[in-house]
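Backbone-to-sequence.
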């Protein structure tokens, strides 16, 4: 039964992902956002591995120093025991020296390998950060272009599309025509209201001239 539920859930998730993928193909910014999320998750994984590698390097270094110090200590003790004629003690110290010397040699090789791996992780992590930065900048660029396109589209609808001609703030041409007509009517009304006075003044001036 649990397997059946699992298959049903996987089918639903697959259908959902397919639907999202189809939608994102129509929206490059949404697709880029998805890439960014996935890349940031991968970068975070690498960052944690990098931190762990630093810790391992410190542990290897500590273990190597301890083994090297003990190897030198046992070597000196073996020499002292040999000088004192303590063969059994010398043999034990010599055996311990060889053991620590081998451990130090092995740890030195492990430390060298850890350093190489650390450098490789650091390069990969820096490369990922650069790519993430480039993707963020690319997203900003696309968002800017999308905003400009949307703004131009809205302005085009307002200025040129008859479908929106009855909406407020979209009837610029009609408003300009109305203002011109109103200005003409005001001027005409003013001219009519003053024409009698102007004619009377003209007649008066003509009589004076006679």
């Amino acid at each position: 039964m649990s397997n059946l539920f699992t298959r049903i859930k996987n089918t639903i998730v697959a259908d959902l992902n397919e639907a999202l993928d189809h939608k994102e193909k129509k929206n490059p910014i949404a697709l880029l956002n998805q890439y960014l999320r996935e890349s940031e998750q991968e970068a975070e994984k690498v960052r944690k591995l990098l931190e762990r590698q630093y810790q391992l390097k410190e542990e290897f270094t500590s273990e190597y120093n301890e083994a090297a110090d003990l190897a030198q200590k046992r070597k000196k003790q073996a020499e002292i025991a040999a000088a004192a004629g303590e063969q059994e003690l010398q043999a034990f110290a010599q055996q311990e020296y060889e053991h620590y010397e081998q451990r130090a040699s092995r740890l030195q090789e492990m430390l060298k390998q850890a350093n190489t791996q650390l450098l490789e992780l650091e390069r990969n992590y820096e490369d990922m950060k650069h790519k993430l930065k480039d993707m963020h900048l690319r997203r900003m660029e696309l968002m800017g272009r999308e905003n400009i396109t949307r703004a131009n589209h809205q302005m085009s609808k307002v200025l040129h599309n008859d479908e929106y001609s009855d909406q407020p703030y979209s009837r610029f041409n009609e408003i300009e025509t109305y203002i011109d007509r109103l200005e003409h009517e005001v001027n005409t009304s003013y001219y009519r209201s003053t024409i009698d006075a102007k004619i009377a003044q003209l007649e008066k001036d003509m009589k004076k001239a006679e």
